[in-house]
Every structure is written in C-alpha cells, then in structure tokens.
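Quick check before the chapter quiz. The format below is the same one you will see on the exam, so make sure you can read both the input and the output lines.
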Amino acid sequence: MSGRTLESRLAETGFVGPGFDEVRLAAATTVLLHHAHGSIYGAKADLLLTFSGGFLHFGLLAVLVFFAISGFLVAPGLVRSGKVIDYATSRALRIFPALIVVVISSVIVLGPILTTLPLQRYFSDPGLRLYAKNVLTLTYDFLPGVQLPDGHPAIVNGALWTLHFEVLSYIALAVMSVVGVLARPRLVLVVFLVAYVLYEANGIFPALAERLPGRFVTFISLFVYFASGVALSTFRRTIPYSAPLAGFAFLILLASLAYGAGIVAAPLCLPYLVVFAGLSTLPGRSFVRRDLSYGVYLIHAPVLCCLSIMYPGIHSWQFVALVAMMVTLPLSYLSSVLVEQPALTRKKIIAGWIGGRLHLIQSTMVRLVRV
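Here is the expected output.
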C-alpha cells in the first residue's frame, strides 16, 4: 500500500469506488435503526449520544457520512466538465423524482389511512399543502389528523430535513465552480477552512450560534463535511490511500468523541474514513448490486410512523426495525427500478433541452438589446 494515493486507488477501480454503495446502504440502515430505537426509547437513549457527550448520535453520524460521500463523488465531474447545467440536472434528478413519489404517496395513501379526520376535512386542511412542500425540500413534518397514540401529532418523515441542506450544498458547489474556486485547489482548501472555523465557533461558543440564523448554523454543521469531501477529492493525488492512516483517523475520532473533542476531530477524520471505505472492496459487495440507500432513507420513516400508530403495543425496537426493514427494502428496490434509475438515464436529454432553452433565451435577449 506504500505510495498509493486516493487518485491511484480510484484509477485501480476504474474510477468507481467499489465500496461506496455499501457505505451508503450501511448509513441509510443506521438511520433506520436509530429511528426504530428512538421510536421505543426516545432519541436521547442513543448510545453514541451518551458516549460523545451529546455531540453526535447514530442518525446524525449517518447523515454526515452521506454529506462527505457527496462532496467527494460529485465534485470531480463538475471540475472536469465545468458544465453547471449538466451538474444541476444530474443532482436534481437524483434528489427530486423519488422524493416527489414518497411525499405524494404519503399524502394520498398513508395520510388517509392514518388520519383521525374525515377524509373531506383531511384533504381540505391547509396542513396538506404545507406537507406537500416537502417536494421542494421545504420541510414540514405533519399530516392533518395523523397522531401518535398519546394524541401528539406524528412526525411522518423525520428524515427529510437533511435534503434541504444537501441541495444548498450542491448549490454552493455550483457557485464555487462558476466563480472559479473549484479550479484552484488552494481556494477549495480556503472554503473548507472557513466552514471549519465557523463550525468550531458555533459549537464552542453557543452564544455566537444563538445570534446567527438557525438554518445557517445547521447548514454549516453539515456543509463542513461536504466541503471536507470536496477537499479530499481536490487533493486526491497527494492524499495517501492508507489503512494505517485510516486506523489512526479512527482512533483519533474515537478518542475525541470520548473526551468531548468530537467537534474538532470529526470533520477531519470522518470524511477520510468514509472515502477510504468507499474506495475499498468491502465484504458483501456481491449482495449490493443496486444502490438502495436513497430509497431506504426516504421510505423507512413513514413505515416506522405507520407502525407506531397502528401497533402501539410493540416494545421491542429490534422487532420494529426488522419489520420496517422488511417493508422498506422491497419498496426501495421498486423506487430504484421504477423511479430513480429511469430518471437518471434521461439526464443528458433533459440537460440538453434546458441548455437549448437557455441558449434561445440568451440569443433573444441579445437581439432585443441590439434593437
């Protein structure tokens, strides 16, 4: 392994990291398990939350893994082509088709089944339009009349909140490309360092975070991991692909979490661990023939919500997780086959159409100016 870099390892794998699908599926499954455990014992019972002194729970850990992977995998294509329209089309087709299907299915199938309201009142309730805005990643958690057994409104899909910040991260990367930052590695490093400093400041000085908009604080807390992935991609020709380095990063991360310094080490260590694993050949690859992670992430929470309302007597989180997985995996497969992959296969056609329309608009505006 001596002398190997992230770039050379990518070249060995045909520039397709063999482990990324497994890492993504493991992260999505971790979110499912975290929510299943929380549905029985509450979110504060998370073992990692206790171990890290309240800094990190398993659900958030999985989300940070997704952001680091996105930064590492998405940036190179945009750097090579510089075609922001193609990039934006690809990202939109990755995020929105499955999201739209899940949100609409929740509105017209899950809600009517679970609501305590008459169907006429359910479909005329203003809350339905608020929930429908989830298709734009404008998060709203509740469907009219859908309640937990204790009478509190049920959070129908608590995983959707991260998508808004993922889209903002994609937009930030596009801006970095347009202004020339991505073409200059030192500027990419500056962007990461600025995000890292803001992240540390918000965590170490709570009074500062309280004065800033909450959405900005949340964005920085996720974008710093995305930016770390981008930085790893930018400097991949010089960063070692090294199992000893990955082991050292893991030990540093573990120790920092145990001693209350996770906020300092996590953005530096976790993305490298994620990228190293993604570039490695992991056990079980033969069973992961299709990327189901996004479907699992989108679908599992409504399934858990349904279980919590319809079967409140279940007190085993392991059983809840097993049932949720048995329902979620087939639906995720259908999402991949019928929604996600068909949408992605049309990205060149759609990007070309958008580019043509923009060129036409630009030509029209030029003619009008000359007249």
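If your answer matched, good. The chain has 16 helices and no strands.
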